[in-house]
Records
---
Amino acid sequence: MAMFLSKLGRLAFRRRHFVALIWVALLTLAGVGAASAPAAGNTSFSIPGTEAQKAFDLLEQRFPGMSADGATARVVFKAPDGRKMTDPAEKAVVEKTVRELSDGSEVASVADPYKTHAVSKNGAIAYASVKYDVSGMELEESSREQLKDAAKKAQEAGLTVEIGGDALQAAPETGATEVIGLAVAAVVLVITFGSLIAAGMPLLTAVIGVGIGVSTITALASTLDLGSTTSTLASMIGLAVGIDYALFIVSRYRGELAEGRSREDAAGRAVGTAGSAVVFAGLTVVIALVGLSVVNIPMLTKMGVAAAGTVAVAVLIALTMIPALLGYAGRKVRPAGEKSRLLGGGRAPSAEKAAKPNMGTRWASFVVRRPVAVLLLGVIGLGAAAVPAASLELGLPDDGSQPTSTTQRRAYDLLSEGFGPGFNGPLLMVVDAKGGDDPKKVFTDVGDRVEKLDGVATVTPAAPNKAGDTATITVIPDSKPSSVTTENLVHAIRDTGERIKADKGAEVLVTGSTAMNIDISQKMNDALIPYLILVVGLAFLLLIVVFRSILVPLKAALGFLLSVLAALGAVVAVFQWGWLSGLMGVEETGPVMSMMPIFMVGVVFGLAMDYEVFLVTRMREAYVHGESPAQAVVTGFRHGARVVTAAAVIMMAVFAGFIGSSEAMVKMIGFGLAIAVFFDAFVVRMAIVPAVLALLGKKAWWLPRWLDRALPDVDIEGEALRAEDDPRDEDRALARA
């Protein structure tokens, strides 16, 4: 592989005009496709194999005009102080608003609050329910505008009016922190390379890669039902890995220049060695992201595949466009250790300064001398950070987790104030009595039994379909949607349904957004272990090929588990317990997003293997060429610690930039990935890994002879390239083997 990638790097260096033209053409093509494609909406939710989805499917069959997956809106009215919604003036305004809402071309029905008894007991608050024929993703902008205009007219008449539901979804905003993240990345690159030109290359290639990836996602959004969150997450991961991959190749290029190689030769060797690590690191990230499909939730599968595609583009750009840009830059990219004149360079370093070991060397030497102490400190520290993860509660964000500045959140709060906390998360029971002797009696019996359960505030009368064999019953809990109490109520209703099925032969299914969220959380929990086995197993085999060792990949996997548990603990502390919530802009604490653990496992594992590959391949390279195990650790840190540190800081800055998002899911993922990178890069890879390798010594690189013969030789250390320079290196490598 090293030889092939080296030739590719040299070719890109020589044919830089052609390579640059190809990538610019791809970016232009993707941009034109994105500009001409219809705007992405909110992705539809489907969770095959769950009771909530089964109930939705049954509603579509038995209630064909109901549009079970259609968008909904609740227009909430509050009377001025001292007045009631039943007063003639307020009632006239509401009735006029209901008539205006009914005129919408996509509106299926509008419920008059005075006919449906949707007025609070104290008379201060009322709401009108609007049902649409199409889903929130398919809803036209004109329908949203009509909804806003009707609410605005009611406000001008003196009422407080807010709108909740999925018909009026605010577009997520990332805010200025995303720009700050990129600015931090730029500063770190300048400090690392001591050159504005060299620092600009990773940023430029990362932006081009993300531009191609996100534009392609936008162009296909309508066709493939991709939501806005998909492109946000793809840009988050694509930026981080794109900058890192380019950083490693440019850094290796400068190192090769420092050894006196020509620029074309240095570009080839940089792509052949660091590029090999980039390929395998990118492959682990792709495996982790595509592996999300095992959860069998279409939305999560699409997010993972889209992000994996962006990572694949980042790898290809790093392997081809970086050497092309190095060809354009010429002498403006200096050898390692030299700075540009603009940043105070141009003078040769003194002999004393050149001989002084760098920070990476000093740190690795310390760890090699005190491996047990460093190992214990690292493990205990991560263990302490992981303690909150034991209290992990899973759920999905609803309007109650929106910022208080949004109309959805204000509508949520008004409904809770007027009708109780459970009113925002009604449970919809679907009773299938087809084939029974007396369906009406079954419907009544189901309602009576459920009404006696703990945690039930209200049960509405059954609403049968035209055939009279299926009915819907709405249950209002007395607790908020995301609470454990509501989850227990859903399980209690389903247990009651099992007994009713045994007694009456009727099937009782529970659905609605709250039940759907509970089912998603359960599905995520059930899929976590199979997903871990698949992703970690495949990556373990891949790392065995890369490192030709059993213990090094095993250590890498165990270190990853430590860092991801610690990161989950930090997420629980901030978003569930409320620690530092003000600093993070978390206005409402609650359960952790149900897909967060499995998403973090996938993404963090891929990124963790990045640092493992980049850092440990340098150590193996030194060991293969004759150094002792302890000295190889120090050598690996001398060459790689500065770059890995810069890569981690950049990745943290990019992820942290998304903490400013107005969307709760993006905010939580941004924080979780940023803190996970911190734990994995600076505690696991920089402390625990060298400590373990120092303790293992030569055993770290042990591989059974039969397995060594069976594994393909991918030559990630660049043995073939060294053999080109000095045939004796090939003989020494064969002798050690």
---
Amino acid sequence: MRAVTVNGAHAVSAVQGGERAVRVRASSGHRTRVLRLLLALCSLTALFATATPADAADSPTQAAYLADRLRENPVYVTDQLPREVPRSTAPDFARLAKRTGVPTYVLVLPMQSGTDGEQLLGAVHDRLGRDGLFVLIEGTDIAEATAYGVRVPADAAATVALYELAYDAGPLLSFERFVDVIAQGGERATARAEAARETYRDDEPAEMYIGPSDRRNQSFLTGSLLTGVPLLIVLTAGYVRRSRRRTGAERRVPRWVVPGAAVLTAAAIALTAPVVFDQTKSSAAKPPTPADLSARVERVAAGLKQDPVYADPESPRVLGSRQLDRLHERIQDFRRSDGGGPVYVSLVPQTPESESAGDAGLFAAAVHAKVGEDGVYVVADPDDGTIDVSNHGLRLDSNRLSFDLPDSVTLGDSRADEADDHLLGERLDTLMTFLDKTPRTGRPHSESTPAAAPRAADENALPPLFATDFWPGLFVGAFAALLLSGVVAGVTWIVRGLLRWRSPAPEPSGRLSPTSPTEPPTSYLRRTAYAELTALQGRFNDPDDRARAWDHLDAALLLVDGDPGRARQPGTDPATLVAVIVLARAGRAALTGEAADLCCGVNPLHGRATRRHHVRVSAEGNSRRLLPVCEPCRDTAVAEPGGIPGRLLKLPDPSLGNTRLPYYDVTDGPLTAVPHGIARLIDEVRETAGVH
């Protein structure tokens, strides 16, 4: 015998001889009335519960659906992110999950606003009824990780993955870092999490991938270097060669060296750039397979063939049972109406990472093609609450659907923004009313074919390095090389000028003829005379030097009374300064072993002469003189005899003010002996000074 007490009534049951007898005895009339009241209250509670709009008892909840998927496979990758996390990556997540050492369940879902990851994992765990490590990855980040019945450092591992990796590391690498920290154990994982938090508190890790704009910058830099550096080598070498030639220090270098160096540099840049700029894609996403890109469309189309309203089971429910019943009734009424037809409603999120790249019209067209039946296709996003409507083959005024549908229906209002369900049930009901009132047309209308989504294989691929801005870079590099070489030459010229002004140095013999003026100012003669004389004086290091050029130095010093500094002081006439310059240069030439017996009689500042030649010395008439000439003056005398008068050295005549005459007509001093040779000039200087 077993006694059971229920709400104050006692029941006694007995089983005897295969017959079951039940006797119930009421304790009192008062208790019977109480029992009836309680039963009535329970009935009312059940009635109100069934009337709740958010009730979704007729369809599986989000947690129940995900628990069923994990029961089939401990790793579930959504089909809604094929451009970022293709479903074909599920084996990679599973391989990593085995390294945790505990049962691990992984959910990869789209990022959902208003969803608490911890609550979702808890509900999934309760539905699944299994202990282990539960990980929720939303998009590309580890959103939540919770351990049920196992001891693992889930929080520390999630912290390390968050801080140590760049935001573009991708879900696979983030999960791999998470798993590695889990395998380290509690103490080491906690220490690593603290270190990561301290290290990257203010500065995030550097990005792992570059974008198209960064690749264009790389291409531009490569093109600029490819033309700029070799051209700069050629221009700089030419400038250095000219500078050495002017200073008389030119070195004989094979002609092919500079072009060869430029070509080798260009080849090195062309070969090195792809190694340095070796990035080929802009994100960690793996290319999806065709099956990845079609999975969600096929899933939704299959659901719509069974029911004209398809609610994404991976997303929170936004329509209650009464709202669903109401929507089904409205759809049936519209289907039976004059000029009406099927209406298919897809409550599915639209994200840039989906197969349609977030284009609801493109998604509707793809679903229409899979369903294979014309109708109005409605795409309602349970995440952001937007509603898109496309007419495919019904006799409806498509312009009215496209342009007159209120924003309160397609986008929602402030009330919809604040509501968790975005008031989609109410707005879809308004949409059905709008469809009922939409004018019918004589023939079916369809939406124009939407533009195809970007190819997933190309979406994350970077353009080639030798493309895009590489070609403008070639021109900019050449221009920059020209500009830079010009700036360097200008700065060098200014610096050398300042150095010459502060510490003048004699001109090399190779530059005398093209740089020596025909009407030199007195300041130039003073500066040059001092530089040449001090340079000659500083070369006397041994007795052999004295033997070779002592007469030249002695005569030059006689002209300045033995003090080279007087050459820079006012008072010395230009003819004397020219004589000092000629003697000093001849002395320096003698020290180097060059023949210095003759000085150019056209312009003594030209330095050494090679031979004597009859030259025209007057622009009027045909007056000629036999003068020693340097190579440039000889070439001029042969090719253009009339050009010699313009090359004659002219000095100011004190008796005629600022009038300048040929040097041999201005003075009767030692300088007139220049056409007769250096030895004669030395003798004239000594005779004038009274030295024998």
---
Amino acid sequence: MDLVPALREPLKQPLKSVLGPATAKVMAEHLGLHTVGDLLHHYPRRYEERGQLTRLAELPMDEHVTVVAQVADARLHSFASAKAPRGKGQRLEVTITDGSGRLQLVFFGNGVHKPHKELLPGTRALFAGKVSVFNRRLQLAHPAYELLRGDGEETVEAWAGALIPIYPATAKLESWKIAKAVQTVLPTAQEALDPLPAALREGRGLVPLPEALLKIHRPHTKADIADARARLKWDEAFVLQVALARRRHADTQLPAVPRRPRPDGLLAAFDDRLPFTLTEGQRKVSEEIFGDLATEHPMHRLLQGEVGSGKTMVALRAMLAVVDAGGQAAMLAPTEVLAQQHHRSITEMMGELAEGGMLGGAEHATKVVLLTGSMGAAARRQALLDLVTGEAGIVIGTHALIEDKVQFHDLGLVVVDEQHRFGVEQRDALRGKGKQPPHLLVMTATPIPRTVAMTVFGDLETSVLDQLPAGRSPIGSHVVPAADKPHFLARAWERVREEVAGGHQAYVVCPRIGDEEDDPKKSGRKKSPEDDAEKRPPLAVLDVAEQLGRGPLQGLRVEVLHGRMHPDDKDAVMRRFAAGETDVLVATTVIEVGVNVPNATVMVIMDADRFGVSQLHQLRGRVGRGSAPGLCLLVTEMPEASAARQRLNAVAATLDGFELSRIDLEQRREGDVLGQAQSGARSSLRVLAVIEDEEVIAEARAEATALVAADPELEGLPGLRTALDALLDEEREQYLEKG
């Protein structure tokens, strides 16, 4: 969001650096800060008050901390060691206190001289280091420190009350070094161009940008911090919403072919043969979609619906409406299993209406073809021919649909299932296959809180299906603490046997396949302290299936399913399970999306703590799809007090996906959520919290929409244009272009 030459100046230059070259290098490599503007927008994470010292009593283990404290005691000890055999080794032990607790600092060797002179009892300082334990006591070994000296004129009260900014730092660059660097560049904040229109800023009582930057980095009072944060939140929300509003505005300028269903066509014939009535929600969302399809600009709509809320039915009716109007519809699924399943369920729902050109096909029938990477050459050739001639009105496929060879007669609608699994480039490539931009419907079963939808999918209009169709059964969820209460796990397997004896089927889900090397580097997953605590690789499908078959589920028909199987084998396993020929399916998360077997009533998720909240909710949605009640058992070895157990308890306590997505978002760093959705571009949000700042985001969206409608090119707002350029670096620009 910056702005003018002074703020674009690199921190590191060949001839004159704004900062020392070593500091500038660490900032670039470890904190992603390259320009003066980047550094000014690197805001403090929190503030320490010299008078009210950080509580040493609550220091976290193994974390890099910054504390403000007073030296209580300092002692120099001599000792003998391999390097100093004659007892000439030196160790300085300094005890610091803040009133809530005491902490030991330790310095060795030549490193003792400077602190021995400076850290005298009564001295106050900032200390930074990694908290460790020695002799059952917390300590910081060789901490970096900065003495806090009150100037002569400064009163004790003013000195004690001063706010010390603590910055997001790294082991290589302490917070106060960042603070000194910020101090160096802070005068250039006066030159920051303000992206907010003056009327908006004044109307909401927000301070100007240069003042906000000064107050966030050098606050005199807590009110200064509040003013600065309120202002900077608006910047982030507003600039992002303007970018999205311009995207929506540009879309309304694109031409598209209006697609209106015929009153006596394919859609009407399909509705007549439905054995049930649509829910109120399905009818309402369908009306919104048909309204969009009838316009001369491409629809861009996000359809959110809980697992099993009937999204596929809504999407199918939209596709039939487009076929009615002479166009073709393509549905893009993230996996072959899901594409095959969609193809199966759609042809079953349509019956003879899916047999266009065939004997026994209905009058308005069309062809529904499947196109995946693993199809045989002959079947593939026929599918491609049906698409280019227009014989097939509906095609369902994986990213094989995107290949250059695939040509459509007249592509009118693209339906993307499970948005988060598709790269923007893939969606864009498929949309490029229409003569004019086709209409776009994006479906997701991952509930997205309203503010995240407005922030991440802000270029799409949103429809929500929040009712479950009649006949759906409730799902009971329970945590099974396998380590604390092993007999609970034994009971879980008994429950599986009981369900199978009652004529039902079960899923057992594991985090891993089991034929890969157990190398944490290869798994690409950072280890959490909880992983370290148990030092055990996640349970694997192949191992668990074998143990269950020999042990608690002996005699039942157990099969495995995972992503590395040949597509034909996967399909055969799914068919047998769907037909009831398998009792228990031990699988990875390949079953997370779209697999529909109404007879499956129980799911046991092993190492459930290894999955995210939303993922567990998705998986659980695979049971309880028929008339019998569903049961989901979350097996974990995590101790009761751990964050992982609290997360699992939250999942067990509610079936409301939107509530769970809020919990999920609050527990993860927001940047992760936005970062994933924004095609990996680093999150632009530094002070805006997507969940807490719902009001700011909603208001910023309304302001941005009105502004862009009045002045799409932002001709009267050079500051806002500059801020947009900084936000929409190339990667982001492409993301929004293709969104």
---
Amino acid sequence: MAHRLLTRFLPFLAWWPLTPLILRADLLAGVIGALVQVPKAMAYAQLAGLPLQYGLYAAFVPAVIGALWGSSRHLATGPVAVVSLMTAAAVTPLAVPGSEDYIGLVLLLTLMVGCIQFVLGVVKLGSAVNFVSHPVILGFMNAAAIIIGLSQLDMLFGIPKGRSDFFFKDVWEMLGYLPLTHLPTLAMSVFSLALMLVVKRIPVLARPGILMVVLITTLVSALVGFEHNATGRIDQIASPRAREIVDNYSRTAERIQALNNDLTELATRIRQAEKEENLRTAADLRYRFDLLDLDIRAAEAENRNRLRVIRRMYFVRAAGDGNSPPALHQLGQEPDGLVTDGRRWRVKRIGAGEMQLMGGGEVVGAIPAGLPSFRLPGFSFDGVLQLLSAALVIALVGFMEAISMAKAMAGKVRQRIDPNQELIGQGLANIGGSFFRAYPASGSFTGSAINLQAGAQTGMAMVFNGVFIAFTLLFLTPYIHHLPKAVLAVIILLAVVGLLTPGAFVHIWKASRADGLIAAATFVVTLVAAPHLDKGIMIGALLAIGHYLYRTMAPRVAILGRHEDGTLRDVKVHTHLATSSKVVVIRFDGSLYFANIAHFEDAVLGALADHREALYFLIVGDAINSIDSSGEEMLHNLVAQLHQAGVEIVFSGLKKQILDVMRTTGLFTFVGEHNIFSTEDQALAAIADRLGEEERCNALFCRVG
């Protein structure tokens, strides 16, 4: 008993004893999984809008905690494509990707996701995830796959990326930059894609294929000088018009930052005034807040327009003589005879009068070595409110991805999965990760499949996986400096191809038109609402719940007659069934609760109106699984009403839980034990006896006569 209680709080104790054979298998599986995970983790961090090392952080701490406190022995917890995209979608409207504010909000989001999952697990609401039905997840996943793929266009082609509150507007803007495609970046994308497709076809190389491609492309990048970055000052731009636009952009960006600081201060003062119930001061501050917010929006709109112009600018740089900084001339406006450094430069980032210039392809660059330091997520009431809906959706979607993979693997190894314990494990993984700079993690399909195929026996495989990730952070980061970001984009692209399942839409449509429409609606709304992905899945979930309520509000009610084979069947389907003018038999295919009692009552009264000579009304209750107080009250009134009209209500096939309610409330006594039977044949036999010889020969009673 004590051991059982202990393993409930420390589930990893169930792995013991760990034999050398098990440890060797787990160590091998952990190392193989980590080799694949390292490049993918960085790719997913890029997708989440974070510095690449944050992907490794998410593959380190959450992986270990998720393995120790989850119920699955093979589930790999870490960064995944869909959750990475949803993280970016949730935080990008609130801060600039990669900035300190952005990172702070992401860590807060991770903590919120973890807390939601943990609480749901503790109160045993693992089944709450069922509110997000399969058609909703199908529509969401397919839309997310398309969004993920399109979001990598800038990395694949080496073009600027739009940033607005409407994803397809950004995509349209990126397509406008296609003439500016950086050919070496495109070549690297095509090369890495071809290489990955080739190694996947070779069985021996398929598993370590991604790692091999990363090593090869990193080496090629370093040898050919793929990366070319430089810095420059705005006053080095020799073209007057270009210098003016860049300078105005820089000054406006500084002004926006100052205005945002003032806005934050005003928000604090408003909350303080409201707390002190100083309504006049609060109203005055709110008015100033709104004006300041309008100023910021106008300035941001101006800078977005300037940025579109800047992104189309290419510069050539004069070959410096070492005595003075080289001048930058806009391409096509350079003086005749100018000796350049042989490169075309574009502005990557502007700030404080300085420019970061890029004359080659983008690479991973310097990744800070070392393990993630302990850091409390910055908590703010405004941040929690802004991220709450996204945190709830990420928590549910992340857990659905994790539990579906865990169940799939459990079926193969005959292991029992506890959804509530898995929720606790995923929650603790994200809570712990939030203190060590990890963004929201979930169960990884690829990582878990590799873990299982590599022969993992227990969750120690993921502990070893985390240890290897830590080793990478400590010692291997300098060696991936020249890894092209285009290669990471290709990794993401291939990873999400499996999420595209058009055939599943056809299958769902064949099974249920309503489910097909829900899946299609979720798909369309997710695409249209991007980057606000939570709207798509929330609307899909509401549609699914609404459809369920609609079906249960009007379940099927069938009037039955005797078939030639002796069974009772629906007279609407089989029009020549034997019936009796003295007896009406109906079957109600649903539970009786407040939302459908009117439908049931109308069906009964309608059937009696069509059979005015009826003396008995038999309700076949085999399909009634539950009844609430409203349903019991309705039955009580209906029995009394029909009794006054000279019609006796008889029940058959009622389940124990229904009879228990009837006995507790006195309805059983009111109906009478003589009117409640185990089967419809017993009920019809009793009714035939009461009607006498004249009706006994009716074919409706032939099976029991």
